[in-house]
Amino acid sequence: MRRRLSGALLALTLTGCGAGTPAAWPSAPASTSPTAAGAPSAAVAPPTSSGTATPVLAQLPRGGRTIFPEHRLVGFAGYPGSRALGRLGVGDLDDRAREVEVIAKPLAGGRTVLPVLELIATIVRSEPGRDGLYRTRASDRVIAAHLAAARKVKGILLLDIQPGRADVVDEVRAYERWLGEPDVGIAFDPEWAMGPRQVPMTVFGQTTGSEINSVSAYLSSVVRARRLPEKVLVVHQLSPSIVRDEKAVRTHEGVTLVKSVDGIGSRAMKESTYDKLAARMPEAFHAGFKLFYSEDRRFGPLMTPAQVLALRPQPEYVLYE
Fold it and tell me: Which domain holds residue 281?
C-alpha cells in the first residue's frame, strides 16, 4: 500500500495502491454482534466467603496483560477477497491465521509470538460517497469473522483505519463495541488521512502528534473503564513528513504504541528508510517493520527473518502485506 507519488501513481486506481474503487470491493455483509465472533462473557471467580464475586481480569490471548517485552507481534494485513490489499485477503481466512503462526516462528527471537490479523476496517475510497468523506467501513460480519480467526490461533485483531477526510478519532470510536474486547486494537494509516480539500491518491495524507495522542487517550479510557489488558495502537509511517510534531506523542496508560515503518524496495532501501525513521522515533513508540510480499520482490529477495531481527532497534512488530 506504500507507493511513491509520481505521475504513474496518480494515474493508478485505488485497487493498485492499497485500496479499491467501489466496484472492486465485495459487498458489505449484514451486521452481526461481537458474540458472533465468540466474544466471551466476563469471567467471574467463585464467590468468596463473604458471598461477593471477584472479577477475573481479562488476559491477552497468550497470557499476561502487557504486550512488551514479553511478546513479539507478527501478522498479516489486508481485506477479504482483495489480493491487492495484502496477504490477509488471499484465500481462506483460517488458513491465513495459521500461516501467520508458521512465519512467526523464526521471528520469535526469544519472545512469545502474538499473531496479529490487521484488517483494513475503514477503507479509503476514490469517490467521496454521500458524506463526502472518501471512506467506507467494514461490516460487523467481516470484523466478527476476523476476530474469530484471530482467536483460533490465540492472536489479536487490529482494525486498520484509512480515514480519508473523516476524523480519525471518530473512526476509532465507531468500533467501540469491538474495542471493548480484550484482543482488539487499532492501526492507523495516516498517509490516507486527507485534509478537507484533499483527494486520496493525489497527495500523501498526514497526522500530528496531537492527533495520535487523542486516539491513544480514547483507547486508554476504554481499557480503564473495562479493566482490559493493554491495547496496541500502531501508526504506519512511510516518511518523516507523514507525522508532524512527532515529539509531542506521549504514552497513555493501557496503550502500547508502535511505529510501523513502511516503504517498498530492496533490503538496502528498506533499511535506509527504517534507520531514518527510527532515529527520530520518540520514546513513546516501540519499533515495527513492514514487508511486502510482491512489491519488495520487484527489487530483490524478500528480507529474511534474520535480517529483520538484525535491524536496530529490533522490530517488535513485523507485518507482512
Answer: 71-320
